[in-house]
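Deadline looming. Please check this record:
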Amino acid sequence: MAKINFGIIGCGRIGNRHAEYISQIANLEAVCDIDYDSARALGTKYGVPYYEDIDEMLSEENNKIDVVSVCTPNGLHAEHSIKAFKAGKHVLCEKPMALTVKDCEKMIKEAEDANKRLFVVKQNRFNPPVEELKRIIYNNLLGEIYSIQLNCFWNRNMDYYKNSTWKGNKLLDGGTLFTQFSHFIDLLYWLFGDIVDINAYMGNFAHKDIIEFEDTGVVALKFDNGALGTINYTVNSYNKNMEGSLTVFGEKGTIKIGGQYLNVVEYQNIEGYEIKDLKESKPANNYGFYQGSMSNHDKTIKNVVDVLNNKGANAVTGLEGLKTVQIINEIYNSAILNGVKS
């Protein structure tokens, strides 16, 4: 199997996570960040060239890099992915794929024009309980799905935003659903299909002076298959993350995947079936004073390598990444109609 060569744009926490697993599974050839110290630190750690300028990295390393990992702020994902495609590279783009459907469409078109692959990071799909729920739904073990409840109760304190150059900024961050919970929105689409009606309310209760969007939201959903759903989310859980859970009520069973990060089967009662002997979930991404979603980037990067070596199917396509962005934007548009300022 041929080794795949990666370059990384964005050398913050998530760029470091990509570098860790790329170095284990593939080859890391170069890194880039407008913060030269961050680029130098990551490049030095892995013994690869480091750059401040994307075009310089793509030009100088043109014959080496196969895939560019885009790990920059949300609002820059489209711009940086398109630069990589124009340079003849495949792209592994962090979540969210972009902040608008239009930008997602541009990325997909650029990938097609360059005859290159677009991969989108959605690592929660690889959580063992989530994979099991996908199998249960695929095999119709729950029968008709009646309703779905998604709860995302995390903590993001003032320091989380103060210590960042972009988080909390509308143009670069996009909103709480983009930065904190887009993985969870992706799972709703991946597991249950299209959403046809949305009604949302939002508020900023504890972060009024530091972020430009909501810190809490409630959303009612109707799926194309007739199921009803709710999303309750906040980053105001006192002092620490509380819960990330998905509960499904069906004709033949009920199941709740919970814990803080969809990493535990908390409840199951399914006709003629029992979930048991699941693989242990990986620990959450630990960022010091807060934690993120499950650390499944190894599986994401392995999927990229397998696909490019003609040994696998793309785990998350550009169209699926677009769908997540579309749903989030429709939620925000509903909230605006209900009196929340954009």
